[in-house]
Design a protein that fits this description.
The protein is globular. It contains 13 helices and 11 strands. By secondary structure, the chain is of the alpha/beta class.
Amino acid sequence: MAPTLIAEIVTIVTDGVKEASPWVLAAYSFLSLYILAQVFYIFLFIVAPTPRDILRSETTYRHIEGNGLASSSKPLPYWKSIFDQRKKSVREKGDLSDSNIGIEDAEVFMSLVVPAFNEENRLGIMLREAVEYLQKEYGQARSGATVNGSLKYRYKGAQEQSDGHLGSGNKGTKKEPTGWEVLIISDGSKDKTVDTALEFARSLDTESAVLIRVASLVENRGKGGAVTHGLRHVRGKYALFADADGASKFEDLGKLVREIKKIEDKDGRGVAVGSRAHLVGSEEVVKRSFLRNLLMHSFHLLLWILTPPATAAIRDTQCGFKLFSRPTLPYIVPYMHSESWIFDVEMLMLAESASIPVAEVPIAWHEVQGSKLNVLWDSLGMAWDLFILRAAWAMGVYRRT
């Protein structure tokens, strides 16, 4: 009975369509597309990820004090609160341009954000390499600096060094901060990641130890959520996020600094992306399994199809070694939604939509055992997340508001 009824309904509709005028057919088609679009929008609204609220305890950090003991929880600096205050003041004056707001001045030259989820076995090695480089190239607080205070300054107009920083020289017209900090974000770790980070800091001299800050997320957010959280609280003129596995050669940071300085716009905005694309034909990549290489090339094709032109032109969007200038952060961090592996793409899309220059910089990289990435399932998950991410921004589910 049911198949017969359905056939009769189809016949009636078909006959009606045949007898309808072109204008009626056009109206019917438009209405159908409109209904489908609304249904798809509702679907996106339901499935598109929304980051959970930040807990008060997650806006604090601990470090090693001069007596070698771990400090009590202290509040992390939060540049966005001051930025929002300035933005409100500018809006009240009728100015709708974000370019006239400005972010608060940097206190150090370089901030390093390290997302870490159950990384007790790999974190110490990575931190050792990073801190040795940061200390050698950027120095640290000397006399009179506090944990949250400004560090010493060097002047612009001085000779640029191989790391992209400014060395001593003739005094210029504007001061540039020196020094560094490391912000480790334990992403709901269940092992001894926090203890490992603090123990590493304890092994350093007192002046360096206080520059290692450890913040803990109560629940796992995902790598993207941990990175975004860290970038909210950096004090540096430049902010780098680097994976805890130490797969990237840390001294290549100098390359990123030099390249980002070349492309920064008049507002000082710029992004430098570490890239492994030049290694695609190397033995390290070729010896991978056929499935892994197939999924890699398929993902690149999907990126080329789904992302806007400048983002699609980036040959390696997923490398965990990216540098942001401080004025760039207000155009990206507040608008992040993705907390999964695909978050890098959203960052690059946001940079493109704000007309922020992006440079892709080849870096040295090697495979490190212990990755938590499931090649097959996480690749499929990234494809799904990319589709939802692109559709949500295109359909207005996500907005710059």
